[in-house]
Design brief:
This protein is 22% helix and 24% strand. It has 278 residues and is an alpha+beta fold. The chain has three domains: 63 residues, Uridine Diphospho-n-acetylenolpyruvylglucosamine Reductase, domain 2 (2-Layer Sandwich); 117 residues, Uridine Diphospho-n-acetylenolpyruvylglucosamine Reductase, domain 3 (2-Layer Sandwich), CATH 3.30.465; 66 residues, Uridine Diphospho-n-acetylenolpyruvylglucosamine Reductase, domain 1. The strands form six sheets. It has a four-stranded mixed beta sheet with strand order 1-2-5-3. Strands 6-12-10-11 form a four-stranded antiparallel beta sheet, covered by helices on one side. The chain has a four-stranded antiparallel beta sheet with strand order 16-15-14-18. A hairpin with a 2-residue loop joins strand 10 and strand 11. Helix 2 packs antiparallel against helix 4. The protein is globular and about 50 Å long. The N and C termini lie far apart (47 Å). The chain binds flavin-adenine dinucleotide. Flavin-adenine dinucleotide binds next to strand 3, helix 3, strand 8 and strand 12.
Length: 278
């Protein structure tokens, strides 16, 4: 196990966030130790906005045993494994079920927690069983017990996903790759700059990006953060953005649209006002 103070900007895809004590755990014994004080769980940091002042709780990262998987995808898979790695393996093995997650840069645990996915499929649909560490012990759940919905799950409070079993169907490799290509085509036009994916949840039967575009908010810039010109639901770090810049953009959108933030916000953030450049 490694314990170090690190800027979370280095561990999140938005590239912002102050320091925290990061516990990289490798064994169940590490997990038991790390959870003896208030903690947060970090996956690949691709759905997080972390305050510039960082967070006071321990930040737990899954390594060692929790990042292992069998090459045939048949057994338990560590929650610290990256979803894109599993998707590539499933294509090679001729197994279908993860294609809807193409382009989602999550770890398995983060994808379960957020029920990550696209209109082509979600994490919940690819799960057979989920192992969760909670109150000092692990327990196994079937997906139907975890309250999955749109970008939502109901894990036990403070629960850490440690491993999962996947529910994949045999399908010719070519067909799996064809499905991935479909999702890839639908993702064309998404920004390449640093982001955390969609900032807001889509309202029922509508698209948050379309609504933001309709309000003329694309290109709105605060400090070094911008509402992407390519996709209204992406807030991008132009290089050197602060969490406050990004948070101020969220507040700017919410001042005119009743949209719910999809990201998880860690730490204390206060929106700046009066610093907008269009
Ligand atoms: C370029 C880009 C494109 C994206 N496209 C999509 C998309 O198409 N669809 C989509 O749904 N999302 C998308 N996202 C958002 C993001 O990838 C997902 O929300 C993903 O599920 C987050 O996983 P993560 O491992 O990065 O989790 P993190 O961002 O690290 O954490 C997110 C939440 O999960 C919790 N968590 C992480 N690991 C565990 C664990 N082991 N046990 C319990 N809780 C845990 C964290 O505490 C936090 O609450 C995109 C992001 C980017 C940067």
């Amino acid at each position: 196990m490694k314990v170090e103070r690190l800027p979370l900007a280095k561990l999140t895809t938005l590239g912002v966030g102050g320091e925290a004590e990061v516990w990289t755990i490798e064994t169940p014994a590490d997990l038991a130790r790390a959870t003896q004080a208030p903690y947060r769980v970090l996956g690949n940091g691709s759905n997080l906005l972390v305050a510039d002042s960082g967070v006071s709780e321990r930040v737990i990262r899954l390594g060692g045993e929790f990042a292992l998987w069998d090459s045939d995808l048949g057994g338990w898979i560590g929650a610290g494994v990256l979803v894109p790695t599993l998707l590539q393996a499933s294509a090679r093995l001729g197994l279908s079920g993860l294609e809807g997650l193409h382009g989602v840069p999550a770890q398995v645990g983060g994808a379960v927690k957020m029920n990550a996915g696209t209109r082509f499929g979600e994490m919940a649909g690819a799960l057979k069983a989920v192992e969760i560490f909670h109150n000092g012990a692990v327990q196994h759940y079937s997906p139907s017990e975890l309250g999955f919905g749109y970008r939502h799950s109901q894990l036990p409070e403070g629960g850490i996903v440690t491993r999962v079993k996947l529910d994949l169907e045999p399908l010719a490799e070519e067909a799996v790759r064809g499905k991935i290509a479909l999702v890839d085509a639908a993702r064309k036009g998404q920004p390449k700059r640093k982001s955390a994916g969609c900032a807001f949840k889509n309202p029922a039967h509508d698209s948050a990006g379309r609504l933001i575009d309709q309000k003329g908010l694309k290109g709105t810039t605060i400090g070094k953060a911008m509402i992407s010109l390519e996709h209204g639901n992406f807030i991008v770090n132009l290089g050197g953005a602060t969490a406050e810049d990004i948070y101020a953009l969220i507040k700017r959108v919410q001042a005119v649209l009743p949209l719910e933030v999809e990201w998880e916000i860690w730490g204390r953030l206060e929106a700046k006002v009066g610093q907008e450049v269009i």
